[in-house]
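Worked example 3 (structure in, sequence out).
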């Protein structure tokens, strides 16, 4: 299979008029005027060819949630993500009792071991909770929040088939800093839902945390005398997640963040919950009722509870907010791949990587999606 006559977002971070050859589910060649002898030719007719989007923080969509704990829900999520061009997802848990998480992770393992070729690749778990701060719990259930426990974490990771790709930790909680030092060798450790100050957060990065969960949300903010978690993130080399729905963060702050952090550390996430892609109404997240109205998902007390967007909407909104198209695309592809250490496999249109591709028109309407070189039903 060879893609021709399009504008390709290459691994140089720019659009180029090149051809892309796919063989055996991988990108075989990228270059100008590639031979099409014996190949199925996909004529892009001037449209854009992009790497598949990667969402490293999503609880659910399409009426299904990771915490449903059923393979049917997982497949429903995969089928919904793919329609938005999201080819790789780190499905995200909520703060729940350890025995409940154990059951969820076991079901996830069974699903992942036998995953369909149709739909997004559910490639791992983002373990958001229970090792958080009660002061910055957000939409998490306080009674289930506990200090970080490395043995519990190892057990849950093993039950998932070693598929926990990220774990969220509030570093100021006694004992959690030691957890970071051990967990960093297993997966990406994220500073998250934390009331920690600047120095505590810098210490967490020094111990091995390399990412920051939904920057600005559920953490200490930036002040000129107490920089907080946000200031520490600025001052470090850590990746930062950013929810770009225009509700969690004001567009002006999003623009400022790109100016301060640059284009290589920001990972756009959806933080979507099951209502993404669904009508307004009452839904559930982590056992709590969530009310969705006017594009906002919130608990009864008004606390924001995830989003109802996807990566495609996020990219479009970033561009609407004034972010360069190329920067928005990096935030949805190669940056999250690097954050979870899978950039050797995916995240860009590079020879040897998975053939996860999407075709969009100038308005970013998705025309076709390929995962592992297989055209998806969208």
């Amino acid at each position: 299979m060879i893609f021709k006559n399009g504008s390709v977002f290459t691994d140089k971070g720019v659009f180029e008029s090149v051809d892309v050859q796919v063989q055996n589910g991988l990108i075989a060649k990228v270059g100008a005027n590639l031979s099409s002898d014996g190949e199925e030719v996909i004529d892009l007719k001037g449209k854009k060819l992009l790497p598949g989007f990667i969402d490293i923080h999503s609880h659910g969509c399409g009426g299904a949630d990771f915490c449903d704990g059923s393979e049917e829900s997982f497949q429903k999520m995969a089928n919904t993500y793919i329609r938005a061009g999201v080819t790789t997802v780190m499905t995200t848990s909520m703060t729940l009792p350890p025995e409940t998480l154990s059951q969820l992770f076991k079901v996830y393992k069974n699903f992942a071991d036998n995953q369909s070729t149709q739909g997004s690749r559910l490639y791992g778990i983002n373990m958001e909770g229970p090792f958080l701060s009660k002061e910055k719990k957000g939409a998490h259930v306080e009674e289930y929040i506990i200090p970080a426990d490395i043995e519990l974490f190892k057990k849950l990771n093993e039950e998932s088939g070693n598929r926990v790709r990220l774990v969220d930790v509030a570093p100021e909680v006694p004992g959690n800093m030691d957890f970071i030092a051990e967990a960093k060798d297993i997966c990406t450790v994220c500073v998250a839902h934390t009331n920690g100050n600047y120095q505590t957060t810098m210490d967490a990065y020094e111990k091995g945390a390399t990412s920051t969960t939904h920057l600005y949300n559920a953490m200490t903010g930036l002040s000129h005398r107490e920089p907080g978690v946000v200031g520490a993130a600025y001052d470090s080399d850590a990746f930062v997640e950013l929810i770009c729905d225009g509700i969690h963060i004001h567009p002006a702050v999003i623009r400022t963040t790109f100016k301060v952090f640059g284009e290589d550390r920001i990972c756009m996430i959806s933080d979507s919950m099951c209502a993404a892609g669904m009508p307004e109404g009452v839904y559930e997240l982590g056992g709590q009722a969530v009310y969705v109205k006017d594009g906002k998902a919130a608990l009864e007390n008004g606390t924001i509870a995830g989003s109802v967007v996807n990566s495609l909407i996020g990219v479009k909104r970033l561009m609407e907010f004034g972010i360069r198209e190329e920067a928005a695309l990096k935030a949805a592809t190669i940056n999250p791949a690097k954050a979870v250490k899978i950039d050797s496999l995916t995240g860009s249109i590079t020879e040897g990587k998975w053939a996860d591709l999407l075709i969009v028109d100038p308005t970013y309407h998705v025309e076709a999606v390929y995962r592992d070189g297989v055209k998806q039903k969208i």
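Notes: The radius of gyration is 20 Å. The first strand starts at residue 2 and ends at 4.
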